[in-house]
Write a structure and sequence with these properties.
Layout (H helix, E strand, L loop, with lengths): L2 E2 L3 E9 L3 E8 L4 E8 L10 H15 L9 E10 L2 E9 L4 E2 H5 L6 H20 L2 E2 L8 E4 L2 E4 L6 E2 L10 E4 L6 H4 L6 H17 L9 H10 L13 H10 L10 H11 L32 E4 L11
Antiparallel strand pairs: 1-2, 2-3, 3-4, 4-6, 5-6, 7-9, 8-11, 9-10, 12-13
Helix pairs in contact: 3-5, 3-8, 5-7
Length: 318
């Protein structure tokens, strides 16, 4: 077994992404199980790490500011020189035991009560992030862990301060195509309303096991979304009409017509008689004032930089 910085003993790799690995590990100082996210060397080897180090440090700081039962806690950040022969940055996080929402949805849609409860807790986690001025930007089933203690929202790897410009080339958008808000496709800075669009897609997908659009590629998906509104939810026996209305409002083209995360969390929790923990603080970066009546299977697709109308859409079932 390898040990990072003489403290974190890596036991089992439990997740792999394009640029990172997640390991189950043992914190030998505090004698507890943790998750360790390692950022792997870039194409130029260990020396190609300045960007990833800055990015993962920013991820750690964003997530560490959030103390919320539905957000996986961050315990530590560091760089290790004993991996691949060079400095490798890592984040030590709470080990969330369970399965992702994406894994659950492979068998089909969830009972509406479970879907609504899960999305209520996701909305509560987003409310905590938005109160700190943080936009997650990658809300999707693969980043929602279902544990015995409830939902855990994972991976703030591309989180950004609300309203901050994205330092990517023109025409490239970072995120998962099916969950990007229309304004993100137009290159506008992400606001909390962008997360609310993704929440609407998440709720729709949880209830139906399909997206509110029909497409087989990223370019087709984006083209369809620019031409057509999302499909209405099909009839679901027992689903409260206010949940249907909320889902459709989250999918509104105009950011100001979407409900806030706080309102969504409270409404969804009320629909299933659940309790959610929501912050009672004023967000540090507000989204535009709503103008609507609200006063306030790409599920596991990896996050990617999407060159609009060019990147492949790699399927709904992963």
């Amino acid at each position: 077994m390898r040990t990072l910085d003489g403290r974190y003993q890596l036991e089992e790799r439990i997740g792999v992404g394009g640029m990172s690995e997640v390991w189950r590990a043992h914190d030998q100082v505090l004698d507890r199980q943790v998750a360790v996210k390692l950022i792997l060397p870039g194409p130029d080897g260990p020396d190609d790490q300045d960007g990833p180090v800055d990015r993962i440090r920013a991820e750690a700081r964003s997530a560490a500011r959030l103390v919320h039962p539905n957000v996986a806690s961050v315990h530590d950040f560091g760089t290790s020189s004993n991996w691949f022969g060079g400095p490798v940055p890592y984040i030590v996080m709470e080990l969330a035991e369970g399965e992702t929402l994406a894994a659950h949805l492979r068998a089909g849609p969830l009972d509406w009560r479970i879907s609504v409860r899960v999305c209520a807790e996701v909305a509560a986690a987003l409310a905590a992030a938005h109160a700190e001025g943080i936009v997650h930007r990658d809300v999707k089933p693969a980043n929602v862990m279902l544990t015995p203690a409830g939902v855990k929202v994972l991976d703030f790897g591309i989180a950004i301060p609300a309203g901050a410009p994205d330092p990517l080339p023109t025409g490239v958008v970072l995120g998962t195509p099916a969950y990007l808000a229309p304004e993100q496709l137009d290159g506008e800075p992400a606001t909390p309303a962008a997360d609310m669009y993704a929440l609407g897609v998440l709720l729709y997908y949880s209830l139906t096991a399909r997206l509110p659009y029909h497409a087989v590629s990223a370019s087709e998906l984006i083209g369809v979304r620019r031409r057509q509104p999302p499909e209405p939810l099909p009839e679901i026996d027992g689903l409260p009409p206010e949940v249907v209305e909320l889902c459709h409002s989250c999918l509104a083209d105009e950011p100001g017509q979407r409900p806030t995360s706080l309102v969504a969390a409270l409404l969804l929790a009320e629909a299933v008689d659940a309790r959610v923990y929501v912050p009672m603080t004023i967000p540090t970066a507000r989204q535009p004032a709503p103008t609507s009546p609200w006063t306030e299977r790409a599920a596991a697709e990896p996050t990617e930089a999407v060159a609009v109308f060019e990147e492949p859409y790699r399927g709904a079932g992963r």
